[in-house]
């Protein structure tokens, strides 16, 4: 269980009332930007940030589309949802069986099932690798003004490059945040989770999340990455647009840490280190960034 914010029990109670569930006995699973609660009866409640109604609708629709296509993924309960409680969108899910964190092999196994699917008639936006980056930089008040200005400039430069990115594989439905933390490994195999960033875009974006763990953070071994590439059928690090997408992913990872470091002093050193890496103040890649949250 992860608790890093104040639980919004009022939102949980209101959402359960609207959806017809009893919140008695609810247990917090993860309380952060989004809140995850467990209800008796194997029901999971996800309370998203205010202003994320569109993303919550998309998550439910994508989950149901994946179920229709037999892709192993978390299942949205068959009720009318999301509901709005305390100004926040709330969704309801089938609790997963006992599970652990996925593996690199699990990531590629599920992407191989997701990417070939025909693009559905769903309200999916075009991929934006830079969603919420500017807001995160503004919130990163533990950083110096000079560092924040540099991050804004880096953001603008990468966004400009994105508009003129090289041609790659055909666009498809992409998960948007395809890494081992969004895979649950169960006794019956891996299950895909978290469709907040599902969109239409280059499949390379889903592949970059694993590649940067080799080239940027050193969290994936060369052998494991070679297996990943063999299983998928391509090595995204050899694509002309790799440095652009890797740069975008590094910026997301850095600003995520910096945003939360503003209210969590224990993460300030890690956030600053990531900025120092991007600005050339640290050792050469691969760096060894530590996980937060």
Blueprint (SSEs and pairs):
Layout: E1 2-3, H1 9-19, E2 27-31, E3 35-39, E4 43-47, H2 53-68, E5 83-85, E6 88-94, E7 99-101, H3 104-114, H4 133-139, H5 145-162, E8 172-174, E9 183-186, E10 189-192, E11 199-201, H6 204-215, H7 222-232, H8 242-261, H9 268-278
Parallel strand pairs: 1-2
Antiparallel strand pairs: 2-3, 3-4, 4-6, 5-6, 7-9, 8-11, 9-10
Distance between the termini: 11 Å
Number of DSSP helical runs: 9
Instruction: Give the C-level CATH assignment of the largest domain.
Output: Alpha Beta
CATH architecture of the largest domain: Alpha-Beta Complex
Main beta sheet, described? 6 strands, mixed
* Rg over CA atoms: 19 Å
Helix content: 25-40%
Overall SS class: alpha+beta
List the strand order in the largest sheet: 1-2-3-4-6-5
Low-confidence stretches: none
According to DSSP, the number of beta strands is: 11
Shape: globular
Tally of discrete structural domains: 2
- The CATH superfamily of the largest domain bears the name Aminoglycoside phosphotransferase (APH), C-terminal lobe
The CATH topology assignment of the largest domain is: Aminoglycoside 3'-phosphotransferase, Chain: A, domain 2
Overall pLDDT metric = 95
Secondary-structure element order, as H and E? EHEEEHEEEHHHEEEEHHHH
Beta content comes to 15-25%
């Amino acid at each position: 269980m992860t608790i890093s914010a104040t639980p919004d029990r009022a939102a949980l109670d209101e959402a359960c009332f609207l959806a017809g569930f009893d919140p008695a006995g609810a247990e917090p699973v993860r309380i952060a930007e989004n809140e995850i609660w467990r209800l008796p009866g194997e029901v999971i409640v996800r309370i998203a940030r205010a202003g994320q109604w569109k993303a919550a609708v998309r998550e439910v629709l994508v989950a149901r589309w994946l179920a229709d296509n037999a892709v192993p993924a978390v299942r949205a309960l068959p009720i009318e949802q999301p509901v709005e409680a305390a100004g926040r969108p709330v969704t309801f899910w089938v609790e997963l069986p006992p599970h652990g964190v996925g593996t690199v092999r699990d990531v590629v196994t599920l992407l191989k099932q997701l990417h070939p699917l025909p693009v559905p008639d769903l309200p999916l936006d075009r991929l934006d690798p830079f969603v919420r980056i500017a807001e995160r930089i503004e919130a990163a008040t533990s950083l110096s003004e000079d560092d924040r200005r540099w991050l804004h400039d880096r953001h603008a430069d990468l966004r400009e490059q994105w508009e003129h990115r090289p041609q790659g594989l055909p666009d498809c439905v992409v998960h948007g945040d395809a890494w081992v933390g969004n895979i649950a490994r169960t006794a019956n195999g891996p299950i895909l989770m978290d469709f907040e960033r599902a969109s239409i875009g280059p499949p390379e974006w889903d592949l970059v999340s694993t590649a940067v763990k080799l080239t940027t953070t050193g969290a994936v071994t060369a052998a494991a990455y070679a297996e990943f590439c063999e299983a998928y059928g391509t090595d995204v690090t050899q694509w002309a647009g790799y440095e652009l997408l890797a740069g975008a992913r590094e910026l997301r990872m850095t600003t995520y840490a910096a945003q939360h470091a503003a209210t969590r002093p224990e993460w300030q050193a890690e956030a600053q280190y990531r900025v120092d890496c991007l600005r050339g103040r640290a050792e050469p890649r691969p760096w060894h960034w530590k996980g937060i949250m």
